[in-house]
Design a protein that fits this description.
The complex is a heterodimer.
Chain A: H1 2-23, H2 28-53, H3 63-72, H4 74-109, H5 111-125, H6 133-140, H7 144-167, H8 172-180, H9 185-219, H10 229-238, H11 242-270, H12 275-278
Helix pairs in contact in A: 1-2, 3-11, 4-7, 4-9, 5-7, 6-7, 7-9, 9-11, 10-11
Chain B: H1 5-38, H2 44-51, H3 62-73, H4 84-115, H5 117-130, H6 135-148, H7 154-177, H8 182-190, H9 195-230, H10 239-249, H11 252-283
Helix pairs in contact in B: 1-2, 3-11, 4-5, 4-7, 4-9, 4-10, 6-7, 7-9, 9-11, 10-11
Chain lengths: 281, 287
């Protein structure tokens, strides 16, 4: 009973604090504090609910139990992280985005290809590509190569469509100016059209970060060596070791946010001139 | 539009050509191996014919997949467990339920975010963070836990679909509900409209183009969620189960036909939303 009262108290206090804070004129500290309070309240209420209602840890472990499990099995988590993220997702991400970028430049050079490939690319980007996973696992074996292949296929088309779109983002006036400067195709590409395409390219790169993680993890459901985040999640669910599953989810969330945040930071550094970046402080 | 027909057809033809070629390259070792055991020498045309007609090829040729799809959709009874229509329906129903739940949740959250500053500041960052968690990886746990508390069947899959599809709707609707400019908002204020009148008569109508754009993304995401949601249930029914069963038994043709079926389903659903969009926007005088 005490825990439930505690949970309700935390909820009311957090609510009150956020309503008060959000009426203040927005500076950075407030903009950071409000979501943090919200998140903290959520975790405390979760803890209180699990303890107060005596929820079976097999169904929903308390945050504290997850934290304990996280701390005690860091070596397993690290091993899975290396297998899935560094070997599978990251290598696939680099290969897939690189290949899509090169293809986009070729496609952009030939108008016929662009008009043919862009509708097909848009169509493929909407398909459930993740279904390719069993086939690729069959072709490339159980180890990380097949995971990387799934990631390559998943990130390729969103990246391709965005880059091709970006390479067309310059207007006729700007291209005419390059022309009057006597710029060759490659000079025009390097000095005008690639920089102008950067916001689009980064949009594709950001979409690809989450796709890469999803692809690498889900591909492990179809067969993997005895390590990896997807393998650990599916086997631990079978053993009802839900605290370990949640610890893997925490790792995935941290990695996903860090990956996305890293690309977003890079974007800020590269496209500092773009209105969407200049507007913010 | 018309000028792009020829390039698109060329690219599609190119893809089919590559597919047939890859089928020869990937299936040739097995064909040669079989021929060697039988003690016969294969000519090139025999080799090609064999690679396009194997029972368990590494990569089935397009016509093999087409035949399999024909056999499992038209020639089988719809109620049969081997009918692809039956499995598609299972996946489709979970997709649609999840899509409806996700759209509802997304619109509700967007309305809350637009009209309540506290909610905007506290919830919005978490909605964005929620999408960096690879939810598909968590799908097996959601299924198993919900099964343990007695919820099974359609709903667990729909919940995964919902989680994937609410995000684009929230982002699109927040943008759409905020799209009326200051002039229009001032105008409706001079007419002495209440907040709810402003919502129904200005903000909601002007958000429609954004809503439809996000619905298309949400529908595609919802289908992916339903397919992945079927994986951990032990391959009982649905397109995801066909994929998993096919990968267990090396039935590549079955995998590819389920995959093509899923692709057709996705394309059909997205096209359907496109049609609704065109009709709705035309009647609202926006397109």
């Amino acid at each position: 009973m005490g825990w439930i009262v505690f949970g309700i108290a935390v909820w009311l206090a957090g609510w009150w604090a956020n309503v008060r804070l959000s009426t203040l004129s927005g500076n950075r500290a407030v903009a950071l504090a409000v979501p943090l309070i919200f998140g903290a309240v959520l975790i405390l209420m979760w803890e209180a609910a699990v303890r107060g209602f005596g929820i079976n840890p097999v169904l929903l472990p308390a945050p504290s139990a997850i934290a304990v499990r996280f701390a005690s099995s860091t070596h397993i988590l690290w091993q899975d992280f290396v297998q899935t993220v560094l070997k599978g997702a990251l290598s696939g991400y680099v290969i897939g985005c690189g290949a899509a970028f090169m293809t986009a430049i070729v496609v952009d050079r030939f108008d016929f290809l662009r008009r043919g490939l862009l509708p097909v690319g848009n169509f493929v980007a909407a398909l459930p590509i993740i279904g390719m996973a069993p086939i690729l696992v069959m072709w490339f074996g159980f180890d990380w190569q097949s995971k990387a292949a799934v990631v390559v296929v998943m990130v390729f088309f969103p990246m391709l469509v965005n880059t091709v779109e970006g390479l067309r983002a310059t207007d006729a006036m700007q291209r005419d100016l390059m022309h009057t400067y006597g710029a060759s195709y490659w000079q025009g590409l390097a000095k005008l059209r690639l920089p102008a395409a950067m916001p689009f390219i980064f949009n594709g790169l950001k979409i690809a970060t989450t796709l890469a993680l999803i692809g690498a993890i889900v591909a492990e459901f179809f067969g993997s060596p005895i390590k990896g985040m997807g393998f650990r999640i599916s086997t631990s669910v079978g053993q009802l070791a839900l605290d370990l599953v949640w610890a893997e989810i925490v790792v995935a969330a941290i990695v996903g946010s860090a990956f996305y945040g890293g690309v977003a930071l890079l974007e800020k550094a590269v496209t500092f001139w773009h209105p969407s970046q200049r507007g913010r402080t | 539009m018309r000028q792009s027909v020829l390039p698109v057809l060329t690219v599609v033809a190119l893809i089919f050509g590559l597919w047939y070629g890859a089928a020869v390259a990937l299936n040739a070792p097995w064909a040669r191996d079989q021929a060697q055991r039988a003690g016969v020498e294969l000519s090139f045309s025999e080799l090609v014919a064999d690679t396009w007609a194997q029972k368990k090829p590494k990569l089935p040729a397009p016509h093999q997949v087409a035949v399999e799809i024909w056999n499992t959709t038209v020639e089988k009874k719809i109620t049969s467990k081997r009918s692809l229509v039956y499995h598609s329906w299972i996946t489709l129903s979970a997709t649609l339920l999840g899509f409806a739940l996700g759209t509802g949740l997304g619109i509700a959250l967007a309305v809350g975010i637009v009209f309540n500053r506290t909610m905007d500041m506290s919830v919005m960052p978490w909605i964005i963070a929620s999408q960096t968690v690879p939810i598909l990886a968590v799908a097996p746990m959601i299924i198993v836990v919900l099964n343990a508390v007695g919820v099974s069947g359609l709903l667990p899959k729909a919940i995964i679909s919902m989680y994937l599809s609410f995000f684009p709707v929230v982002v699109g609707m927040v943008k759409g509900l905020r799209s009326p400019d200051a002039m229009q908002l001032d105008q409706i204020r001079t007419w002495n409209a209440s907040t709810s009148q402003g919502f129904w008569k200005l903000r909601l109508p002007s958000s429609m183009p954004y809503l439809f754009a996000s619905l298309k993304i949400a529908m595609a995401a919802s289908l992916v969620g339903a397919i992945v949601g079927e994986l951990p249930t032990g391959a009982v029914a649905g397109l995801g189960a066909r994929l998993l069963a096919g990968s267990y038994y090396g039935q590549t043709i079955q995998i590819w036909s389920a995959l093509i079926m899923a692709a057709a389903l996705a394309a059909g659903l997205v096209a359907l939303i496109g049609v609704i969009q065109r009709v709705a926007l035309k009647r609202m005088g926006m397109a």
